TrEMBL record:
Belongs to the cyclic nucleotide phosphodiesterase class-III family. Keywords: Hydrolase, Iron, Metal-binding. This is Phosphodiesterase. Transmembrane segments: none annotated.
Amino acid sequence: MSDAVTFVHLTDLHAVAAPHVEGDACAANLDRLAAVMATIGKITPRPDFVVVSGDITDRGDLDSYRRVRAVVEAHGLKTLYALGNHDSRPGFYAGMLDDKAGATAPYCHDRLIGGLHVVTLDTSVAGKVAGALCEDQFAFLDAALRRHPEAAKLLVMHHAPLVAPGTGYGWESLGAADTQRLAAAIAGHPVAGIVTGHVHYDRVAIWNGVPVVTTTGLHNANDVLYRDGLRFVAGGSFALCSVRDGSLSVAFVPLASDRRELAILDAATVRGFS
């Protein structure tokens, strides 16, 4: 039996360098991130890495990325990032990677960590809530999956595949065509799991035999029992994960919360998102 690779899944930080208005719902998110990173830093044994699957900031501004980077780097944990619909590629490249060229290309990358091959895709689409994968990303994925063929694969992306056609709202996931193409792309490869965010609740779905793990994140929680739109409540979580011999194990770690109601969006408003 091989040694496990352990990692922490964070998502939906929605960090802001400064509140946008008085009472900004994102105002405490950097402090929450700092507290969670301190908790993660005390985990024994130390995780091999942390992965953040998008919505790193709420508005995609340079200062917010710089603040997130400072908080995360202070704890010395290897951290990988994906981009979500609230992120901005130019802001991310400049604030997190010191790229001043204003890059707009999808942020895709892969890395072998302790026998686990982590492949990160960028499902963000400028101006859209929904996610998608472009031709260049499928080309990147095809090439990445051929590297380290003996290693279990972990896919990281903000929007999950469409795991339950005909349910929910279209913007919650990749579209049907991208989902089908993704399924074809990973078929025959040792994909241990996919970690995602975006919808703000904890979920595990088995999709084409692959676990798709969604974590609530640090900003707020979505009440999954509410059916007339969206009801947001206080709360969040991160996930402590491990991969051993190609099998993924996940334990959700809830943040302490009174679960108070924060906001309700009616169904008509929610259906209007794209």
